[in-house]
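Dear support,

I submitted the protein below through the web form. The confirmation email said the job was done, but the results page showed an empty box. After a refresh the structure appeared. I'm attaching both so you can tell me whether what I see now is the final result or a partial one.
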Amino acid sequence: MRRIGTKNARLGMILTRPVYDNRGYLLLDTGAEMNRQSLTILASRDVPEIVIDDPRTIDVVVKPVIAPELESGTIQGLKALLAHVKTHGKFDDSLLQALQQSLNSMVREMFPSVMGEANASGCYSLEEYDYMQPTRAACLAMLIGRKLDSGIVDTANLGMAALLMNLGDSLVTAEEEADWSTPVPSEESDEPTVAGNPTGEDANHKHPTQTAGFLMKAKRFDPETIEGALHHHERWDGSGYPSGLSREQISPFARIIAIADTFYELVSTRPDRPAYMPHEAVEFILAYSGELFDPRLVDLFTKIVPLYPTGITVKLNTGEMGVVSDANIGFIGRPIVRVCSHGGTNLVRRPYDINLISPEHQNQLVSEVDPYLEPV
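What the results page shows now:
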């Protein structure tokens, strides 16, 4: 398997993974051959990459922790729920139940053990960001939780907190029509207290408080889930909002979600900037370890998310160019690379692997990354 950008897709290429759009709908299934119609579909739906068959990487497996069809179901469920809340200002029981079922299906993929790589791809459509980004963040948050040995119930509650963390954004219209001075849980008990004003001038800073108040009124979410959504913008050094909490004052769920949320925001296209590459996003979070993020969780996060995901094209500082055949999860920035060419033009007759964790390759490192380049 090999990842390529859709701009490099060619007639006759064979898909080895299904392709979903940013709304979670299946566009092309595994085994589909690229023809003019399928190339047009990919271009029109803003699909950034596909995974194709390549005889040089026939043994390379691109396997996400969460199956694409399960993630797709959750994206669609969250979209429907948020649309209903925005229109009616309340939950629809059937939509909430459907979302919970989709989330539970993702949770079951992580038990009894976690298999596969975390999805390091962000959202490239501004229109779909509101429900695709939280879904990806929920997957990563639950994965971090599992690495901390969380049980199935806690993992599901953590995932729901991440899924609904931005629910307050859907209540902006309702807020203009009603008093949203809502109660939120205190740190010491489950009894509600009135939250103080969020820091800063940005009205967006109110959305965690609005989300928590809405979840409390629903009377169906655990306190840990509500706190996770309420505090996901708090920061380790106390510079976050809405309460300016710091260090262990911040709930464990919120500390995890803060990292997952930031990572997928960075690797997603935003109005003011293009998407970061996965290794750039990881380096950003590393840079703020102990300042914005819990350093213990950052250390764990870096051992979970691949800087160089399996199947992407990389170039080494020694001139070799090839495909990551194994991300070597846990060894930060030291993947196994299937060398396909020297200098980008001198093709290798028989591609071979270089394991960058091996002592004989310790002076070699990835110097350029582009998941959409061709290795030959």
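Response: this is the final, complete result; the empty box was a page-load delay. The radius of gyration is 22 Å.
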